[in-house]
Structure formats: structure tokens, C-alpha cells
Amino acid sequence: MRSIRKLAVLALSPTFLLLTSCGRHSTSELYYLVATNLSLSYWKTATSGFNAAAARYKVTARVTGPDNYDAQAELQELNRAVAAKPAGILISVADEALLKPGIDAAMAAGIPVLTMDSDAPTSRRLFFIGTNNRAAGRLGGQRIVEKLGGRGNVVFFSMPGQPNLDERLLGFKDVFESHPQVRISDVVDIKGDARNAFDSTQQYLTETGDKKISAFICLEASSGKVVADAIRRQRATDRVVLAWDVEQDTLSEISDGTIEATIAQKPFTMGFVGLKELDEIFHNKPKSLTKDYSVDAFSEYPVFIDTGTALVDKANVDVYARSAAAHQQ
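RE: above sequence
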């Protein structure tokens, strides 16, 4: 009886509770984040979220992928991650057709895979965490229509074939369908190099008359600053620039009026929630990783976790600048 009382007291002690609550996790649990363009501050922010979750759960996080936009190199890193037999993989998909077989191979090997930022909906991944990119495109499209008064030529900077960027473009087209006098002159493939956006902007700024470009729209993070630079150099202050993400340079260009607005995403949240969800899946594995849970009305898994978006302009840019500064401290 005395032993039972001692055990009951021990079970209520803070030390015992701490030890038992941490027993679920181990640094031997390895989780991968695989992406491209890791040199961008966007991905540094996503990495910090991924690592913050790993620190909270006392597991091991590993981030891998090329520093530039290179889908083939990302596939190689995904294959290496699968070979390491980790507890789970979080991946941003640069090219769905190229990466789908690797994702499916991981799932077939019993490794849970979630997508973030850029999805591969035709793959066997469990679900997607990130932005509702088509809705975000509509948000940007509404601002462009408003600023152009419903008419004008626009140019996009993108990387066609990357699923999230293609979805954003579709969102803009959804809005422009009801405003036929807003015409898309070109969708420039920057091929992962923002200098291509700069060169194209300089070229398009020479167009006049019916061919004049009234707005430049950046569907990814790296182009905003260089497009603003080109606008400033040619003093084309009557042109509208819409950027993407909250790079510090982008926020500064909004403050001085060169960039009209940007679409803010939450990469830190994507990384944090991604590891958190993978950890939950690892410790509560489903009966099957090959089942299509999207058509199961009683599934414990969502199809999509929307981490949110917002339009940032002069009215609220200071809020985002303060948040970015606080995160860097």
C-alpha cells in the first residue's frame, strides 16, 4: 500500500511529468525539408520554422536542396532523403511531373510525405500545407484592376511549370476574365534568375501606345526588388508593380511607393506546421500510406492546411516590417 502511495505522489511530481511527456520523442527521429532556392530569405524563414518545431519536439531536422532553382537537383536531394529512411519528409515541389515518382516512392517505402508551398496533388503525398495560391492570385488581380481602372497591358514574371506559380497566374486570370480590357502581354519565364526580370522590364518599358505595359506582376519573391529598380532607373512612376512575399527590400520599396503592394505568405508557419504534422503522423501511423484519404469523409487528415495570405501596401507595411525585424532578433 505504501509503495502505491509513493508511486501516486511520484506520478504527480513535475519531474516525473516532464520525463514522461518527453519520452515520446528522440533525436534519432529525423525529418527532412526539401526545397529549391534555399538561398532566398523566404526559404531561410521556412527553415527557421521547421527548426523551431524540431527544437520544441526534441527531434532532428535536416534541410536540403539546391540554393538556386533546379528541379533536377531537388529530385536528387529527395532521393537521398528517402534513402536515409527518415521519420517524414516535407517538400516544396518545383516540378510536379519530375518529383511525383520520388514522392510516391517515399510513400510506398512507408515514409510519410507532406507538401508545402508548392503542391503535387497528383502524387500520393498525404496533404498540402501552404497558401491557397489561386485565391492569392485573385487578391492580387483585384488590386491590379483597381489601380489600372479596369484597362491596360500587364506582364507577369514567373517560372511556368512550378505548381504554386501556375495557380497564382490562374487566380489573376479569373479576375481579368470580367475585365477584358486588362490584357496579359507576356508571362516571362525568369528561369530562377531575377536578372531576367530586370532585363525584361527594361525592354518592356520602351513600349508605347497600345503596347505600353501598365503593370508588372511578380509571382515569386526574387523579382520584386529588381523590377522596382528598373522602374526607378527609367523614372516610369506611372507603372504599377505588384510583388510577392515580404522580403525586406520589397517592404522598403512599398514604403517609398515604387512597389504598389505585395502578397504576404507565412513560410515560417508552413515549416513549423509541416514538422509538427509529420511528427504526429510518425507517432500515430495510419494503417496505410497508399490509401487516398482525400476521398475518405472520415479521414483524420485534411486535404489542405491553409496558412493564410494578406495584401501588404502602404497602409499596413509598417506592421510587417516590425514583425520581420522582431523575427531577425
